[in-house]
Amino acid sequence: MALRLVADFDLRKDVLPWLRAQRVVSEAAGAGGGGTDVLENDYESLRVLNVERNGNIIYTYKGDKGNVFFGLYDRQTRQNEHLYTFEKDLQVVSCSINSERTLLAASLVQNTKEGRRNELQPGSKCLTLLVEIHPVNNVKVLKAVDSYIWVQFLYPYVESHALPENHLLLISEEKYIEQYHIQVTQEDGNRVVIKNSGRLSKDRIAEDFVWAQWDMSEQRLYYIDLKKSRSILKCIQFYADESFNLMFEAPLDISLSDSGFKLVNFGCDCHPDQKKLSKHLTLCVFTNNTGSLCVCYSPKCASLEQITYSVFHIHKGHSKTFTAALGSAGSHVTKGVTFLNLDYYVAVYLPGHFFHLLNIQHPDLICHSLFQTGNNEMIAMLPHSPLQSLSGCLVLDCCSGKLYRALLNQSYLLRFLWNTCLDCEKMAVLHCVLSCGQGPRVLEAQIIQWVSENVSACHSFDLIQEFLIASSYWSVYPETSNVDKLLPYSSVLTWNTVHRFKGYWEKLNSNLEYVKYAKPHLQYNNSVVRREWHNLISEEKTGKRRSMAYVRNILDNAIKVISNLEARNLEPRLMPLLQEEDNHQRLLVGLMVSELQDHLLRHLQGVEKKKIEQMVLDYISKLMDLICRILETTWRKHNLHSWVLHFNRHGSAAEFAVFHIMTRILEATNSLFLPLPPGFHTLHTILGVHCLPLHNLLHYIDSGLLLLTETAVTRLMKDLDNTEKSEKLKFSIIARLPPLIGQKICRLWDHPMSSNIISRNHVTRLLQNYKKQPRNSMIDKSSFRVEFLPLNYFIEILTDTESSNQALYAFEGHDNVDAEFVEEAALKHTTMLLGL
């Protein structure tokens, strides 16, 4: 299935064997008991109470005499520890332990099943205790009230030494939250006791709230209170120095006025009375280290035919509401939807009905989210018991007592990618797989294989474009915050703030500022590169060039990218890429480096210039590396060899397949104006000559799908003979070359046609500034091989012009072409035209 639950803790496997061993030791010591079978029969009473910030798990169970035992499992050492035994038959509501394991807070209620007398204080239903457990010593009653109480110790961010003061949250069913400040001191060596236990100071944190959630990892309290029937979400951040701040207030477009009272992640959410108080209502807040803040909400299910849920992307400034059909009327819904935090994604599912994977980094593109419905494999394999999403990707199954780490299942998603037929699912799964980031080189190789075999299978988007953009984006995304706003993440286009704090709050604030003020063009594109590149190419064609230092700097950038690209390559390439100069592509690479650096330096405040420069090199190298690997995969698949690079042969089906992939890559990169590896156009042209009839070949050239490089045309002139078919091809190619390159190529072809072209170019150059001068009408006929006055007169003019410009043309390298060469070419051409 798409969701992979990796077991991190299991009550039955990690705790039960230890409890059995403890029972055996007690019996051997004569402490009595009913044998190990009693504990097995009492397994149903063993349950998880809480998971603390450091990962320690608190659990409870009932002994054979009804005593309540508290234990702790350390996930780092994989060891169990007995904490405390309460020798009365009560039911545990909530429990928490401080980071030093010296204080235990517990909330207990009367066990009504036994019909016993009230064992608590008279008139009270719930007893909240604070116990010294290092060693077990005094017990202080914090609350004895007729309403439920939940407890939670705060954990400091620095745990290297014991703190003199502990802080405990008490959450009351009467809709208030208090913070107790508990000072401790050491007596008689290591004995830890509460200082001034008779009078503990406390603060009122919140009141009149209807919902609250605890984030154990980040030490944040989220709660909702009602103001004039409006639901206001608030967040309090706690710090190690006992201070706390109200970070934000955000109105939510949901109604909680009749939803009762609901707590999330204050221990295990399985108390029977709490289920009764808020049946089927689901509301939770998810964050991650990129500054995202999502509120997921599903109201009580009022219909048996459909279910509604909303996701508020507060970091993006908008929300989305979804309604999912539940199929036949007989498929009764007994549980609410489950929301799971999967870092860059939120999973929403209802067992047996649907599974929805929402991209929370880019919620504006609904095509980046995956929705599955029906009785398919993905939905059938999802857990049917309710899961509680803790901080990060931790998930607790309270019914089974198992703690999981929820991850996206890469292998399943890859199989799904191969099998799905819908474009929207292909795009969603492609981004989902790339975001996993586990074994990226191997993962990309598998995706490249899929891309190369399905390049024409997508009709609503360009698969190569999407892969190049998405894979390059995810390769640099984890390195720097805010880079997701500055780099493109898809080829498909769209479709009150916090205080100035560091860490998560700084990133969230940046996200909100972007939503408020940013314009679409803040995201990088190659429009400036396109304009500047065309300017440089035009200057080259006209023989004009701006300062050599500017051009040299651009080409140096390209050298850095290619060196970085070669350093990434772990095995030799079979394809002849990156082996030729191809100055046009190098100019494009260098310009993109320069522009992208400037763009990131403008908008990534506080990031070192060297880090940005390296990020740019990595990003552009990644783009080109992906293109090389797509081609390399196709080349290896069709088992092509180096003899493909010669023109004097016909193309095979394998060559045509590679040519097709290269054409699709060229189309994808052209619209985005992305650079290609030097050597790409040469190889593409060679395969085009092999695979296409002449008229199709020329059409490809004229429409820009084949770009003629000097290397490719030089090889063509040398490889092909002068048969009629080859002459026609050569002439058609030469006629389409830029003048400067065409002149070089013509010198390589010993043929009257090339002589004619060279002569025409020479005459054009000589006479472009020609001014007619008075001239003797008598011509010395003895100096000409043929008596043909128009030609004789014309050659004499050329000779005079050459004489007056001899120094200039010798410097330009035209000394091998002169009036005599032009005369000979003209005579040969005339003879050929007359058929003599």
From TrEMBL:
The name this protein goes by in its record: Gamma-secretase-activating protein isoform c
Pfam families: GSAP-16
Annotated ranges, domain Gamma-secretase-activating protein C-terminal: 625-731
Origin superkingdom: Eukaryota
InterPro entries reported for this sequence: GSAP_C_dom, GSAP_fam
Classification via PANTHER family: GAMMA-SECRETASE-ACTIVATING PROTEIN (PTHR13630:SF1)
